Amino acid sequence: MEAIREAIRIERLSKTFGNGRKALDEIDLRVAPGEMVALIGASGSGKSTLLRHIAGFTASDAQPSQIEILGRPIQQNGRIVREVRSIRRDIGFVFQQFNLVNRLSVETNVLIGALARLPWWRRLSGRFPRAERALSRAALHEVGIGEYARERAANLSGGQQQRAALARALVQRAQIVLADEPIASLDPESSRRVMDMLQALNVEHRITVLVSLHQVDIALQYCARTVALRRGKVVYDGPSSALTPALLKKLYGGDARELLDDATHDADETHDEPDTPDTAAARYAFALNAAPSN
Description:
The protein is of the alpha/beta class. It has a single domain (33-56, 87-288), classed as P-loop containing nucleotide triphosphate hydrolases (Rossmann fold, 3-Layer(aba) Sandwich). It contains eleven helices and eleven strands. α5 (130-142) crosses α6 and α6 packs parallel to α7 (188-205). The model is unreliable at 262-294 (pLDDT under 50). GO terms for molecular function: ABC-type phosphonate transporter activity; ATP binding; ATP hydrolysis activity.
């Protein structure tokens, strides 16, 4: 069997919102299996919009274009494929606002990652097999919050909730993790722990990671490769080590000050209606809930 050469393959991806603004403009991108790539750009540059398209949450403009995940198209020419749920099983999505169901235990939130491979009656009843519960406990211990398994998710700090989201991706057995500004609302110490966990997923589990970041210094520290967006276009794709202040100023002009300011944590404009944490988490669970297993 031929090895998959690209975990993510994007060709001519564009997205225009109702106000006529082009959020993505002819994006071409390749990410190899096992890479950890940073996605940077000023607020509104298209980072969140790009990640949502890769995950099949949002359809692109109706023009010749394609996004492939591990060799399988997830959307083509502005249409999300009918098999999107089965393809999405391989994608773990880590949101900026954690997207845990606050009223449920941490363990149950993590077990949501296993829904897609369970029979329909287990999904409806919430009765998870022992093997899946053992996997969830192991994942929680791996990210350093095993002692909080029985706590309500609402009781965790922001950094702990984000680590629970990473444990969910482990239980999901995701081959790709898309992380959308995962440290934007965290303090420096929590940010370091979350980025360390993402790096561990990449190095120890060989999970492909594409993480959008607002801080160039974090990209330099954790990712060998950086892709930079400006106004929906890829303006740089290369070694993170080459991202000098002079190059950033050339690429972004006045926006470079925002990229170089570690204290700035503005989120991308997604042009979607905001979700409450519980609603967003429920949507995530539904996205993973593929057709019933045999």
